[in-house]
Amino acid sequence: MERPDGTTHFGFRDVELGEKQTLVNEVFHSVAKRYDLMNDLMSGGMHRLWKEAMITALNPPRSDAPFALLDVAGGTGDISFRAAKAAGHGFQATVCDINTEMLAVGRERAEAQHLDHQVSFVEGNAEALAFPDKSFDAYTIAFGIRNVPRIPLALSEAYRVLKPGSRFLCLEFSSVDVPGLDRIYDLFSFNVIPQLGRAVTGDAESYRYLVESIRQFPKPNAFADMIRAAGFSRVKYDIMSGGIVALHSGWRL
What is the value of pTM for the model shown? Predict the structure, then answer.
């Protein structure tokens, strides 16, 4: 989060605000090609269930009615592909990600799954989206908002590009609140995940950052307040897996 002195956090390090995006880009450049494999290994496959919960909440129309999804920080396309498979022929998704390597992986996957006619990929910054006002029927961001240097700006942009009556959905790691599970989770996060990253991608430090960034993200109530401050109504969140993740939602009314 941005501080009055112009610094923010990058994991447990303090960095200049302008430096964070470059550092985050380096992380995802390093891990892009094995990103989805690592998600399976780190979560024991649970990320698939969390994402399916997001798609259920999104509930894209199964008819031919037009429906435009903006999937931010969704470079490898996972959320958009799941939504496309659940939707009708009128569904179109735009994946917007700041990282070219992640987008390249997503485009390859879209072609392999024959979804490139419904899912397109655009390089862009969540803090300054290059889309017109009120142009999307839904906005999703999964495990990406904690990497944004200025989260309030990203939330304001989400509100701006959504049509009235449209929904914002954010899936993000949260705070484990089950006694005993919290200690196991910390041991796994700080000891096992970086070593998995080293073994699978040759990069332990990027995964150390990703673990640390979870601990720096606002608690669910605080993040819900940020979503409200951006203008959203009917804001709520659902805790899953003992607090490991939370699905946040709000409506532009």
Answer: 0.88
